[in-house]
Design brief:
- This protein has helices at residues 11-14, 22-28, 34-44, 66-73, 85-94, 134-141, 162-175, 192-196, 221-228, 232-235, 239-256, and strands at residues 57-60, 78-82, 101-105, 117-123, 142-156, 209-220, 260-273.
- The protein is α/β, with parallel strands linked by helices.
- Helix 7 runs antiparallel to helix 11.
Length: 276
């Protein structure tokens, strides 16, 4: 989904919040289904052999390296760009056993390279790039007929804890009304692709190939609010209001849902092939 102005902060403010909670982000943010990585490699046809890998791969926004580790384990050589120094430090620790992975702390919006890549991918980071320049910058870094892949997890309404979602929205309306827009309508499985669809220039890229992967994960009250504490819009709430919001959500989970809620997720993968 293209970045839209957020009532709690600008794109520039929101996208740097993760580095302040890098350890928590690494511990609490879920990764992605294994099939995502297998499909990216199969569709893009990058060389993932364990010896003498010839394909050049770029990851934009590697974070703490969750997706990077999965791609590196499949034999890829990867150049990673990460905005946050703390996030990059954790990624380097995680990827220490993969000598063909490099991690550079840089802002992709201004980063420059002469390398042309066989695959550029971004996991839950493309929407933070400058929408005015990202398409052409990425296209310039891709070889003709090679691929841009992007994917992200999206909380959806699929039956597991829909009653909790509705009850939680009341808490948000009272404690953090500026955050209710994103929670007003969680997409259902048949709506999520359209909700997350990226429209790229047909001058630069062919029509996308899309895949969706559905899964779920259970959270205790403490885990649930810890995940929220890694979200950029929650990080920018005043500390007192954020604490009250989390306290009430945790109480809701413990008092009305037996101390456990299950979030339904969809991981939406979109691949765009660069034109010649």
């Amino acid at each position: 989904m293209p970045y839209e102005p957020h009532p709690i902060g600008t794109r520039e403010k929101l996208r740097v919040t993760f580095d302040d909670v890098a350890q928590l982000y690494d511990r609490m943010r879920p990764s992605y289904p294994a099939a995502v990585f297998d499909d990216v490699i199969a569709i893009s046809a990058v060389d993932a052999s364990s010896l003498g890998c010839s394909s050049r791969v770029l990851e934009i926004g590697c974070g703490t390296g969750h997706a990077t580790q999965q791609m590196a384990a499949r034999g890829l050589s990867i150049d990673c760009i990460e905005l946050g120094e703390n996030m990059a430090a954790i990624a380097r620790q995680r990827l220490a056993g993969f000598p063909r992975v490099t991690i550079e702390v840089a802002d992709f919006d201004t980063w420059a390279t002469n390398t042309q890549y066989d695959l550029v991918y971004s996991a839950t980071a493309y929407h933070w790039l400058n929408p005015a320049t990202r398409e052409r910058r990425i296209a310039a870094m891709l070889k003709p007929h090679c691929w841009l892949a992007m994917w992200r997890n999206r909380h959806i309404r699929n039956g597991s804890s829909d009653d909790f979602v509705d009850e939680a929205r009341t808490v948000y309306l009272e404690e953090a009304p500026e955050l209710t827009k994103d929670r007003a309508h969680l997409p259902r499985p048949d709506e999520v692709v359209e909700a997350e669809r990226e429209v790229l220039s047909l001058e630069l890229f062919e029509e996308p190939t899309c895949r969706v992967y559905y899964w779920s994960r259970a959270y205790t009250a403490a885990e649930y609010v810890q995940v929220l504490d890694t979200h950029s819009d929650h990080r920018l709430l005043p500390a007192g209001r954020r604490a009250r919001l989390f306290e009430r959500l945790a109480h809701l989970i413990d008092s009305r849902h037996g101390g456990l809620v299950t979030k339904d997720y969809a991981t939406i993968l979109q691949l765009f092939r660069r034109r010649s």
